[in-house]
Amino acid sequence: MDTDRGKVLKAFRLWVGKTQLEIALIMNVDQSAISRIESGERQIDDEIENQYVEACGGKTKLEELFSELQRQKTSIGFIETKACHNSRRNL
């Protein structure tokens, strides 16, 4: 399983404010495939990872995420927690 890679991709998706379904539609795959990628259940190669990154806004956006994490001295897990908190608040 490739859970670290999946966690980074999920955090990136949440950071840019997209849903699994939005990424799936852009990549022309089922939403369940995105779920399996993010959970580490599905191994992906660099090509699939690049497609995912592009669906989320590209490498420049990914670099912005890592810069923000360094600036705030936080981790990828912080983004997931924050996104979950924000989505519950919007219900």
How would you describe this structure to a colleague?
Residues 9-65 form the HTH cro/C1-type domain. It comes from Alicyclobacillus dauci. This is Helix-turn-helix domain-containing protein. With 91 residues, the protein is mostly helical. It has a single domain, classed as Orthogonal Bundle (434 Repressor (Amino-terminal Domain)), CATH 1.10.260.40. Helix content is 76%, strand content 0%. It has six helices and no strands. The radius of gyration is 13 Å and the shape is globular. The protein starts with a helix and ends with a helix. Mean pLDDT is 84; it is low at 87-91.
List keywords for this structure.
disordered C terminus; 91 residues; 434 Repressor (Amino-terminal Domain); 6 helices; mainly alpha
Q: Determine the N-to-C terminus distance.
A: 33 Å
Mean pLDDT over the full residue set = 84
Q: Can you give the helix content as a percent range?
A: over 70%
Order of helices and strands: HHHHHH
Task: Determine Rg (CA atoms, Å).
Answer: 13 Å
The number of domains is 1
Structure at a glance:
The protein has 91 residues and is mainly α. Helix content is 76%, strand content 0%. It is built from 6 helices and no strands.
